[in-house]
Design a protein that fits this description.
221 residues; alpha+beta; Beta Polymerase, domain 2; five-stranded mixed beta sheet; 15% strand
Length: 221
C-alpha cells in the first residue's frame, strides 16, 4: 500500500510547531498497521477490505476557525487535545460489510486506544450523511517515551458510494446565495437514501456470489 504524501504548507508548520511530527507519526503508525490488516485479510484468501484511503493534517486556517467556533484557545496544544481531528485518515471500502470488518480489526490493533466511535451508517445525520467515525490513538514507536497526552487520530470509514455523495455534498454546502436551498437539501437527502439502498443491494449481490457466510476471495467477486 503506497503512502500518499501529506499536503503540509508553511502555515501548518508554523501553527503546529513541534507537534507536527507527532501528528505525522500518528498517521504513519496507523497506515503501517492498516497495511498489515490488508495483507492479513488477503493472506486468509479474502479480498482487500479497503479500496482506497486519504490522509491529511487539518489546515492551520481550518483548525483556527474550529477552535474559535468552540471558544477554545487557538493553540497547537488545544488543537491536539480538545478537538481530536488535527490528523485524519479516510478509508473507502467497497462494501458496507467491509466497514464493519475493518472497524473490528482496528479495535484489535495492539496498544490502540479508542476515545469515541460514531456510527452514522446505521444512524445517518439529518442531511443523509453516512460514515463510521473513530477517534483513536496508537503508540508512537519512534519516541523514546510516550507523550504526556495521547495524539488522537480521526478515522472515517465509508463505502465508495458514500464517499462520492459526501464529496459532492461538501462542495455544495459551501456555495453561497443558492436559490431553492431547501429543495437542494431535500434532493441531497433523497440521493443519500438511494445510495444507501444501492449499497445494501450490492452487498446482497456480493453475498450471493460469495455464498452463505463467505467473504469474496481473490478469485471471486
Amino acid at each position: 500500500m503506497e503512502n500518499l504524501p501529506l499536503e503540509i504548507t508553511s502555515a501548518e508548520r508554523f501553527f503546529y510547531g513541534d507537534y507536527l511530527i507527532l501528528l505525522e507519526g500518528a498517521i504513519e503508525e496507523f497506515l503501517s498497521c492498516l497495511q498489515m490488516i490488508r495483507r492479513y485479510q488477503v493472506s486468509r484468501g479474502q479480498r482487500d477490505p479497503i479500496a482506497s484511503f486519504q490522509a491529511r493534517i487539518k489546515s492551520a486556517e481550518s483548525m483556527r476557525a474550529k477552535l474559535e467556533r468552540q471558544n477554545l484557545p487557538i493553540t497547537a496544544h488545544s488543537a491536539l487535545q480538545d478537538v481530536w481531528d488535527a490528523a485524519g485518515v479516510r478509508l473507502v471500502c467497497p462494501f458496507v460489510q467491509n466497514i464493519d470488518q475493518t472497524v473490528s480489526l482496528i479495535r484489535q490493533i495492539p496498544g490502540v486506544q479508542i476515545l469515541r466511535e460514531k456510527d452514522y451508517i446505521r444512524n445517518p445525520k439529518p442531511s443523509g450523511y453516512r460514515s463510521y467515525h473513530m477517534i483513536l490513538s496508537l503508540p508512537l514507536r519512534f519516541l523514546e517515551k510516550a507523550p504526556e497526552h495521547p495524539v488522537w487520530l480521526e478515522v472515517q470509514l465509508r463505502t465508495i458510494a458514500m464517499d462520492c455523495w459526501a464529496s459532492i455534498e461538501h462542495q455544495l454546502k459551501y456555495k453561497q446565495d443558492i436559490a431553492n436551498q431547501a429543495l437542494i437539501v431535500q434532493e441531497l437527502k433523497r440521493c443519500a437514501d438511494e445510495i444507501a439502498s444501492t449499497d445494501l443491494s450490492l452487498q446482497t449481490i456480493r453475498d450471493l456470489i460469495g455464498g452463505p457466510g463467505k467473504e469474496g476471495t481473490l478469485c471471486g467477486f
